[in-house]
From TrEMBL:
Domain VOC as annotated: residue spans: 4-118
SUPFAM superfamilies (alphabetical): Glyoxalase/Bleomycin resistance protein/Dihydroxybiphenyl dioxygenase
Protein source organism: Streptomyces rhizosphaericola
Pfam families: Glyoxalase_6
Protein name: VOC family protein
Listed CDD domains: VOC
Gene3D superfamilies the record matches: 2,3-Dihydroxybiphenyl 1,2-Dioxygenase, domain 1
């Protein structure tokens, strides 16, 4: 049995405003969440949620993870960029060259994301959120493949990617060099044990795969853990309907 990806979480000093921005960009309707957070449920009732939780993590360089949004045409790409700028996003320079087709933006909290040009074969068929693109090692890609039970759909030159057997958003890791981790990640994954599997049993399984358990608590009664690259993630105590 494997964990389920329950949510991709953002920590924000203004979770309601962050959720409003991403709601407009993604076309997802927000809903209230526990602890002052906001949730964007998946549009079709399946797949992962996006949660915005209160947090004061300072911005100390580029995030270790960001969304890659797909486009169906040049006009669609321009419309996504315009929508993001209209609702508080901005252009940023992360070293991209003028001949690259993707557009690099930041949300109102400074979190990077990319609007990918049409025709990107790697993200074909993934949906609007084509990928959660991460800075990470091959080892961490292997870990998440085993943790989620998602097959590797790319494993080359120390770059890896996984995708649910049901399709949808990919999670990718770019391989070395991996920048040193400084502070707490603003974006992190939230897992839920499979039906019938207890929280402690699932945490023990993840430790056996290479995760660490630092001993601190997590939101909503869950457990805080670290993947092999030291990235925080949480395992929920239960699966509430939000």
């Amino acid at each position: 049995m494997t964990s389920q990806l329950f949510a991709i979480c953002f920590r924000s000093p203004r979770p309601s405003e962050a959720a409003r921005f991403w709601s407009e960009v993604l076309g997802r309707q927000p809903a209230g969440g526990p602890g002052g957070g906001v949730v964007l449920p998946p549009p079709d009732g399946a797949g992962f949620r996006i949660r915005f939780l209160p947090g004061q993590e300072p911005k100390t360089g580029e995030n270790r993870a960001h969304f890659d949004l797909t486009s169906t045409s040049p006009e669609d790409q321009r419309a996504t960029v315009a929508r993001a700028l209209e609702h508080g996003g901005r252009h940023i320079d992360v070293g991209q060259t003028p001949d690259e087709g993707h557009v690099v933006l930041a949300d109102p909290d400074g979190n990077e994301f990319c609007v990918i040009e049409p025709g990107n074969e790697f993200l074909a068929g993934t949906g609007f959120i084509g990928a959660l693109a991460c800075d990470g090692t091959r080892e961490v890609g292997y870990f998440w493949s085993r943790a989620l039970g998602w097959p590797l759909v790319w494993d080359q030159d120390e770059e890896t990617a996984v995708q649910s057997p049901d399709g949808g958003t990919k999670i990718t890791w770019g391989g070395p060099p991996v920048a040193p981790k400084t502070g707490v990640n603003r974006l992190f994954l939230e897992l839920a044990p499979a039906d019938g599997i207890g929280l402690e049993a699932e945490c023990e399984r993840l430790v056996g795969l290479g995760a660490k358990r630092p001993g601190d608590g997590a939101d909503d009664g869950g457990v805080l853990m670290l993947d092999p690259d030291g990235n925080e993630f949480t395992v929920r105590a239960s699966q509430p309907h939000f």
